[in-house]
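name: query_chain
kind: protein
chains: 1
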Amino acid sequence: MISLKTVLLCSLWHLSGSTHLNFPSNFKFGASTSSYQIEGGWNADGKGENIWDRITHEYRGLIADNSTGDIAADSYHKWRDDVKIAKELGLDFYRFSISWVRILPSGFTNHINKAGVKYYSDLIDALLAEGIEPMITLYHWDLPVKIRDMGGWTNPLIVHWFGDYARIIFSLYADRVKTWITINEAVVMCDFGYNSGVFVPDIKETIFAPYLCNKHVLLAHAKAYRIFDKEFRPKYEGRISIANHLLWIEPSSFKDVELAELAREHMVGRYSHPIYSKKGGWPPSIEKLMLKISFEHGYKESRLPPFTEEEKKFVQGTADFYGMNFYITYLIREAKPGEDTGLWFLSGSPELNAILEHPPNVPYGFSKRIPIYPKGIRKQLAWLKKQYGDIDILITENGFSVSGVNLEDYERIQFYNQYLEQVLLSMHVDNVSITGYAAWSLIDNFEWMDGYTEKYGLYQVNFDDPERKRTPRASAYYYACVIKNHSLNDTCLEKKYLIKQSKLTLTGNDGQILENSRKLLFIVLFLRFMFNH
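structure:
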């Protein structure tokens, strides 16, 4: 008879081997960028003007270092270097966005810019030649100025304008591109850009604009999905979704549990429930909340514009997977009497009468707005599964910022290691269906309101060099190793390996932190194995 001790030892050996540290063979690794942040060539070869061109030229004070994306990483001319980098990393896919006005300079279909068409076509072909899947985002915040001037995302006609644009892009590239994202992080442009005014298009209208934007984004996304599904999928196949920016929100205390769930629905549910839920439409709790506070402020109808039954059906089910961008975890509590709730989702929520705070005793990267709390991504993934079932989830962005020119970015290596461990736990312990992971970002870029002060790139870009030289950071070697091994085994964290590649020096304490994290993963997986057997 085999002893319990033998069973335990054999089980532990099994779990601490490569099996549960491996990603499934069909799990895909990638990296992401966006057009305005890397391309430059702001007026090259017939490109039109977008809202970031206009704002950065006219209101320099909005950007931390008074910079623009006029040249950025110059990927409009250096795209071959980007493909080379993607190959060096061993990426399965590269997610980039199309500049609306590089293809349609006016924003409308009256004129198609052939130079812009060729630029993206050449990039797609070069990626495919290297065995890298091109993944296209149709819209990553660079709205045509002419459409902005007509109300932008608060104008219901944008649903049709976006559909026209999407149809053009599908007709040009759907024969080669098989994974599509319609719109990136709608919550940022609606709840920031059309609310607080701390983000482009800089519209300070907090009452109706964010919610009009919210509804029109969902309808525009659905319009693009329906066009693809009817006109292009039958011939070219492929899959399509939207990429949502998710904050994990935890209660500050037991009495804040219901508030935290309401905040999740307000933050995530408004952009997810209409698409992924079985009933469609707005989350019922948010409909109720918005009607209540609208009446309390003297409005005769809800500030949250209702969906018609036809619109509910039009939006519902318009995603083949869930695209998830993840960076931040917050704690939430009820505001004290007279306490300023500040800006949603930076410091609080006026609608919820709530305060958002960072978790205590957590590290930060260069950005002090983004606390590093790896468990948050696992909790968010579990919440999505609970809310919307077993839909496939693709992590379309996750990243860590540094400053300056330091190539020895050990903190970023630790970040990726810890967050990827949580992804593995989500898959193996929580049974969440996660199909891929994209690091933000492939290269340093123009980081919106922060300009070039923050560096997210696996590869450094020298913005003082006219050639915009790209140089791998230590994290690039680490990520390439993870991709090659398809695993979080210790090979990718060995000191000699990284010193050889990048002259990186790890401290003993750093190594101990990683070892403790790894042991925790083994223990959790071991317990799961025992309970399941």
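note: The mean pLDDT is 91.
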